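If it is no trouble, might I ask you for a protein's amino acid sequence along with its backbone structure tokens?
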Amino acid sequence: MKKTALRNIILFDDNEVRRQLLPFTYTRPTAMLRVGITTIGEKWQAMLGEANYSYLTVPYLKKKFPLHVRRSSNLMVAGHVIPTPQLAQQVLSLQLGEALMVGEELIAFNGTAHDYDARHYTHVQFATDIPLIVKHLYDIFEYNAVVMAQDFERLTAGRESQPLSASNTIIGDPSRIFVEPDAYVEGAMLNTHEGPIYIGPRVEVMEGACIRGGFAACHDAKVRIGAKVYGATTLGPHCKIGGEVENSVFIGYSNKAHEGFLGDAVIGEWCNIGGGTTASNLKNDYGEIKLWNYASKRFERTGLQFCGLFMGDHSKIGVNGMINTATVLGVGVNIHGSGFPRNFVASFQEGSAAAGFKNVPLETFYTIAERVMARRNIALTDVDRDIYKAIYNISDRYK
């Protein structure tokens, strides 16, 4: 019996949206952003099922995130759209030449690469279930509570949690706590009144930690002794937090291990926030917040009153750092010393508010990145080096 070929599904970047989501999309396709528990791409894969998946992104990322195109038919899916089961079924039902839209926003297209590029559709369907669409940096934490609850239901459906030790204090519905195998949770206070709590494989929640859902810790994450965590907060793989954290998303492999406050924030990979560092999420005058926008190259109104730190991959903040409300740090930024640095620091800059900033040589950046990644037994590859070199050259225009 002839085996049916798997679908070819391509998670595509919308070029304008990708620019809006810098600095995080400097180093990854949009679908690799984490919202809720899993990345957007992982949600699509869970709902669309087994297939050949690849990415349509900027040229310098293609070696790490390759593109596989078929001549006849490709299912093109927007990497910045958060799927629901109903939306995924509509995507799977698309016939050759058909597109799925929300207003003028393309959600998916089934057809050839040429017709996709030309926006040539034989028929247009409109989504019956309007999805959340990530278009701004702050959408990541603004949507986190809702998406986390959806992810929790999907990931835990029909499964049984590992039992919690009696040393823990549970406030609220215990069924809203799910603990994966090999996790360690002892002497913690867990409150589910405002959202579920998901504890991934090999996660460690230490004694005295207070966690108010929604909360998710992906595999190998750590919550340190006495941490105070408010929802909706997500720890990506191998992240470590302490102190006070509220409504923040850590994409992965980053640390805020000590005292200090972080709220309404998004932290990339391989970042470190020094002990005692506090990042403001509210202006003293309680006014509307403006945020640096890479696409327009200026500060734009957000309509938000609460907005904290956005920290690109491989950025660092030294001990007792002070970060202004709505600060954007690019890739490879190193902040130290006293005082508040400006609200936007371009990629590969090092310095302080008092002494000013200077360029970080690329070889210096590579040396530091190698040391940081080696602690997790991950190597900085030649492909990674080429990506950071491309970002280094691109980001010059913002310095």
